[in-house]
Specification:
The protein has 281 residues and is α/β, with parallel strands linked by helices. The protein is built from eleven helices and ten strands. The longest helix has 20 residues. 35% of the residues are buried.
Length: 281
Amino acid sequence: MRINNVPLVFTTTAIDRSFALLPNVAAFASTIGRPLRIVHVLGQRYRSYAERQMAAAIEALPSGNGLVFELLKIESKQRRAFLDEIASTTGGILAMLPTRHNFINRLLAMMSDYEKFMIEGPLPILALPRNGALPTSIERILFPLDLSPRSDDPLDQAADFARSVGAELHLIYAFGDDRLLPSEMDMAARMAARSPRELYQIDKDRINALAERARSHGVPVVVSTTEGRAHTAILNYCNAEKIDLAIMATHGPRSSEDIWHGTTTARVIKHASIPVIAMRC
């Protein structure tokens, strides 16, 4: 999945709840210097009304702010095939306003729409914050580390993204209960460790190596470590350091807790007041 040199994609029926966020998404596309592909998903009901709504919204989009956009119309049954085609050609980041289920709904539906898309969807997603507010400038980007080798490529992409918008890249790792699967760890080194201090040093060395990897992309890097649950640490850091955007690698559920309460990425999206780009790795 790519997040660099790809357009921002926004799908809407023009009568759904997310449609009101089109001006915000358009402004954000200008902020990050990306073209915007507005995909009008046409249904059978209220079709004429929806087309009038879209025409008025397009007319109201500001000109002269560097925004480059195109409007595409598809039938509702074509939506997934269309996104698959985008993924296989130009690539893109799908902007979406996530649904946020309560615990009872999770018992029935198990996962919210954005969680399903993170696991099964063909594109990385830009999860919009609940209030729809998007930053007009990006100075600080957060990429949480999980020390898994398969997160190396998302880190590279986050570093390139930060460089493209002139932002600092903040890296955070939380020492706590959110652990990698054995298959995702350097088990040989960990089994050879003779004390908790040595295990800690293995992780510290890995964090330092990842920070240097990010700096090699020509971006300023700030590194922080903390203790506790990963999603709580990430949300607290975003608030304390005035982070404008989070970029996260997502792996899908690793434990029963992830299934019932959501993965770290899903829980951050659920509670974050900033946009989050999530890419499957």
